[in-house]
Structure formats: structure tokens, C-alpha cells
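Hi,

I'm pasting everything inline rather than attaching a file, because the server keeps stripping attachments. The sequence lines come first, and each chain or strand is labelled.
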Amino acid sequence: MAEKRFDVTHMPGVATIAIVTFLALYIPVLILVVNAFNASDTAGRWEGATLRWFAAALDNTAFRRAALNSAIVALTAATLSTVLATAAALAVTRGRHIKGQGGIFVILNQPLLVPEIVFAIALMVVLAQVKQATGYQGLGYVIVAHTTFCIPFAFLPIRARLSGMDLTLETASMDLYASRFYTFRRVTLPLLLPGILAGFMLAFVISLDNVVVSSLIKSPGQETLPTYLMGELRRNLTSEIYAISALLLFASISIVAASWFVTRTRQ
Amino acid sequence: MPRSAIASERAVIRAETRRRWSLALPALTVITLCSILPLVVMVGYSFMEKGQYGNVEWGFSLEGWRAVILEKDFFDDSYIPATAHLTILGRSVALALLTTALTFVFGIPTAWFIATRSPSTRAFWMFLITVPFWTNLLVRTIAIQEVIRADGTLNRLLLATGIIDEPLQMMFTNGAVLVGMTYVYLPLMVLPVYAAIEKFDFRLAEAAYDLHASRFYCLRKVVLPLMWPGIAAGSILVFIPALGAYVTPRLMGGGRAMMWGNLIDLQFGQGRNWPLGAALSIALTLVVLGAMVWYIRRVAKGGESIG
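And the predicted assembly:
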């Protein structure tokens, strides 16, 4: 590393390791994408580009149902967790210190302190009782579970945005006899919006990517995209799996690009 | 201040406290019911008797906790160390530490490299690090699996160039899990370290250098202390998910290189030993919390006084 030389811009060892790291990060993903477009169904031989595997995936009812479930779960869980996290962030970030504020903070971040597999199994055990008692087997359980672990993720950027906002504008609005609600809607909310958007996108991606919690909480026969992919993997790596992986990859990348754009325009 | 004014001031504070608590209440309720309560149930289950077909039976028992480290000898019913479990727990700790070390070796130079680019290209390099961070962990695991599996890219390359005659069996080994976890968790090391280096005023290092500090002395006394909070944060961010990893060891290690998280899952599935699974879960949570407390005590507070 940097032991021998100390010129900030000329450290050949550092640059080499960095470039190797970037290549190591991207080559496997590129291979995966190339395989998804490969007309040959044996991954090693290139027989020209095709969209056949994507078509096959989209033609597959099980895949379509899993994709729909993923979209429903991610949208609902991201929306719910963002709303809950926004309210909570407004409660703990500004104004004078209230009684129990530290406790609220710890509880909001609690899902981050527990290993994912433990969170998932513990909730599975409890929800199994609920499933038995109510007889309801729907997607609701997965949505509730996702909402829970998305709250701290949505909370993060919203709180960061709020703590950077000073109270002057809101105080001015209140001094001019605007009601608390009107002030919130016309002053606080527009200022907070970039934070809320960032929180929503983070929660959306975290939910969309989740496989451990979904696979343990879902009822038999229900699939989200990652759990469907996990199930397909048990057989063998096929071109259709590469195509589905590539689709998930594109979804994530467009969301990062979108959030990149949002943060750019804010500055 | 007249007494009535104090009283009304108190009433205002009380009203504000109530209003803000009620704002936080929905989020607190969801987390309490869906995350804290189930954890409490798990603590309870770890002290109960094992049911015959999974589940638990009422009645206090330490059997679940004992089974973490001890098992009954098949022949004479005496207790002997549960080698299978201990191997898995030991492997989990070792692989999580090694993953942290490897992400350190590759991550620190990468973060340094990005931080020393010109501001305009820096955004581009940061984008390249953030994309994998936001990309599905399962998809990234599939990608690295494709590279190292028996008929995967690496083996085909080595066979084609004649370096090897037979494909290397790399999958389902400790090494495969290590490669997989290093691959998926690397961005978690780079991001906080980059944040620390970016804040660093390089003129300080130059000043030390101009004052005839050796390169090593300068690195140790000036650069490292300023990078330390970032390194510690990165190490915690990698170590914690690596220790409890489930997806990557399952795909890369299979049944042969199982980790702590897979062992927990097994107890609630085929193993049908819920008290043991619950005890393993609570133990894992405690180790993670311990690491977190160490971080907050030793680093987060110290880091503030330095920065």
C-alpha cells in the first residue's frame, strides 16, 4: 500500500489495486449480462446476441406473477415506511429535546441492530401463529415485514435532510399566522422533499432486493422475484436465470441513476 | 417569572412532547410489534423444551443453549463438545474476519484512489462503487458463482490456455464463501473510508513531509488517525452482515461450508430443534451487538474528538 511513497497523486501500487478492484467488481456482472444475451444455451460459447431468454422469462407466468408481487411489495412497503419514517424524523430531529427522545431513536434503528436471518426467523415464528389464528395467507405479511426493516433505511436520509434545515422559514410562516398544518404543507414538506424521495428510493431498493425475509415470511406458492430466482437456482444455472438477473440489475441501475439525478438537481 | 407563566410554559412543553411522541408512535408500534416482540419470543423459546415435530413445548429447559456447544455422546449419553456446531460457528467468525481483512486490502487503496482524483472524475468513480452497492445481493452472488463454478468462466479460461487439464473444484468450499462475501461486501468498506479520506486536508501530510517526517511516520501519525474512523466504520459494516450472512454462504458454500445463519435456518427447518435455533439466533445477535457497542465506545466517540 502506501508505506513506501508518500506523494498523494503518484502512488502506483494504489492505482493498480484500485483498477484491479474495479475490474473484479464489474467483470462478473458483465459476464452475467453477456450470458443473458447469448444465443447459445451453454454459457461458454458465444453464438450471437438474442433477446430470446428475456422473451422466455416474460412469457413465463410464474416469473410474471413473481415480478408483480415484487412490485406490489416494494411499492407498498417503501411508501408505508417512508410515511412512518418522515413522521418519526419530524418528531425526533428538531426543536427542543423531548423526554424519551433517545429511546425513540434506538427503537427506530433497532431492525438494523439485529442480523437479518434472526429478524426473519423470529418474525416467521410469530407470524406463523397469526396465520393460523386468522387464516389469512396473503402478501400482507411480506409487506408488513418489509415495511418494518425499511423504516430505518427511509429514516436515514430524511433525518439527514431535516437536521440540515434551519427553523427560520417555518418560524416566519407561523409568525405570519399560518396554521401548523399549512406551514407543514407549504414550507416544511417542499424543503424536505429531496430527503423523502431519497428515503423512498432507498427503501424501495432494499425491499426489492430482499430475499431472506421474503423467503421465510411468504406463504407457500407466493414468490417475489428474488425468492423465485433463488428457487430456480436450486436446479441449475440457465440462460433464463441470467436474463432475470440482468432484468433485476437494470432495475437497480436505473434507480441509482434516478437518485443520482435527483441529488444532482438539488445542488 | 410569575407562577402562572411557568405553569403555562410547562403545559406547552407537555403538549409538544405529546404531539411529537404521537408523530413517532406509528413507526415505533410497527417496529415494536414486528421486530422487538419476535426477538423477545425467541429469547423465551431458547429456554423451552423442544417439540417433537419442530415448535417448542412449555417448560423451562437449558437444553437449547447447551446444544449450542455440547451434544450427547451416541453411546454412553455423556456430554461431548458439539463439534459440528462449533466448526460452523468458528468458520463464521473466521470467514467474517477474513472478509473484513480482504475488503480492507482492496477497499482502502480503492477509496484512496477515488479520493485523490480530480473532483469532476471523482463523481464517476463513486458512481461505479455505488452501483454494486445498490444492486441485488443475490444477483451479485450469482455473478461471482458463474465465474468460479466448475464449468464457469475462470475454469474455461484456464483450460483453454492450458494452465490446467481438469477444472478446479472451487465451489462449496470455505474459499468460495470468502471470495463471494468479499465480492458482495466490498462497497461497504470503500464508502465510509472514502468519506473519511475525502475530508482529509492533504496539505497536512505535505506539511509533515516538508518538516522532514519520514513517509512512514507521516502515514502513521497524520494520515492513519484521520482515516481511522472511516476504516472502523467500514470494518463494522462488513463484519456484521458477513457474520450473519445467509444467501452468499448458501449459494457458494452449500451444505459443506455452512455458516451461522444457515445453521439457524436449518434448526427451524429440517433440524426441528427450535430451542437450539433460538439460542443460536440470540447468541448471534449478542455477538453483533457486542461488536456494535465496541465500535460506538471505542471509535465513534474517539473519532469525533479527532475529527
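The longest helix of chain A spans residues 61-93.

If the labels don't parse on your end, tell me and I'll reformat.
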